[in-house]
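Supplementary Text 2. Reproducibility record for the structural model of the 277-residue chain.

All settings were left at their defaults, and a single model was retained for analysis rather than an ensemble. We include the record here because the model underlies the residue-level annotations in Supplementary Table 4.
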Amino acid sequence: MGVGSVPNVEERVSASLNLVYDRIHKFILQHQFCMYFDETGWRDKGKRHFVWLAACQQAAVYRIDRNRSAAAFQRLISGKTWDAPAVTDRYAVYSSFKTHQFCLAHLIREFKKYGERDGPDKSIGTALENELRLSCKIHGQYREGKISLVERNRRLGARKRRVEYWLDDGLANGSDAFSKICGTLLEDFEKLWTFTKTLGMEPTNNLAERDLRKLVIWRKKSYGTRSERGKKFVERITTVAQTVRKHGGNVLHLVQQAIKCFYLRNPPPLISEALGF
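Retained model, structure tokens:
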């Protein structure tokens, strides 16, 4: 196959997957599953772009945008007012969510960095890192069926009080930067514990980070894209492939069937008949 034929094939595959992509996107916008949002860098024509992701246990949708901004996020969710539960990092564009969980894994990494400093930041940062790690471990034991919901909440109640104590200590005695983050977290303290009140919610954004991982590897190998049709292909093939994998399906088979249906002018196959996409 000639090098010039590759983008032509990609364009036809994108067209074949358009309806499947739209079904997945519509499913994510309309259902009240707990959602996980994230974004990562991308390159198009050598310029900085961003891949935005909305994911849940059942599906994942990707969108490449020139910007990392509130407007770019609104384009991902089609301007919808988001009222479903959501887990994210502390990026400001997510601050309007009604039921919002801050990713504890991000905070653990952040406090670990402060724990490597000298002075009060070291002891307080290490204490906060350990408390949040233990909180995630306790929830993991509940998820695996090793402890009951009542026992999980009892143990997490103690951790919650300890985290609040150390944040107060960091606000009063930490460096300027550390004091600022402690103060910010105290203002949004309940967003560290939303997962304890929301069924099916995780305390970390690991699901979204795992779904972004393959695109990060793709970016490092290919240096991104060079055209609108290239971006469109990346959005569609990654959305369809990752969603099919979540349902244990065969990605190649689904794409083959979609291409056949495209040329026969038939509707593309469903990934999940039960969920309607």
